[in-house]
Design goal:
Helix content is 37%, strand content 9%. With 131 residues, the protein is mostly helical. It has a domain at 31-65. Strands 1-2 form a two-stranded antiparallel sheet. A hairpin with a 5-residue loop joins strand 1 (45-50) and strand 2.
Length: 131
């Protein structure tokens, strides 16, 4: 009996450790978040990355918290390193093909897929390949 109790208490201890300090990570929509909502401690750091197809990354660190100066406009970048890169999206190429050309190309593709006669020319009997 003692062995069963030791085994069961060991399972319970393991379960307690597994559930200890489990916190749910809050899900927040980026358009609703302001930096002031997530940074509140001096020297707290963030990595802000956007445009995942052409990534731009900002390393943000709160150095100190001051009262707002009414003569300045905010947000204010007090220190930066590197050059700011402006990205302008290239315009989409004009659609050169019209609907009739699209249909013609699709029908040619169907002809290629359904052409069994040409496929038979490439298939040789295995007996002909043997010495």
């Amino acid at each position: 009996m003692q062995d069963e109790e030791d085994i069961n208490s060991g399972d319970q201890e393991e379960d307690d450790r597994r559930n200890y300090n489990t916190k749910k990570i809050p899900v927040i929509e980026m358009e609703k978040v302001r930096i002031k909502d997530v940074i509140d401690d001096p020297h707290q750091r963030l990595i802000y990355e956007y445009n995942f197809l052409n990534p731009v990354t900002f390393f943000i660190e709160l150095t100190r918290i001051l009262e707002a100066d009414t003569t300045l406009s905010y947000p204010l970048c007090s220190k930066s390193k590197g050059d700011f890169i402006l990205f302008t999206p290239s315009p989409l190429p004009p659609d050169e093909m019209d609907e009739e050309q699209d249909i013609a190309m699709l029908s040619e593709f169907d002809d290629i897929l359904n052409n069994d006669e040409q496929d038979e020319d490439f298939i040789e009997p295995i007996d002909d390949m043997l010495p």
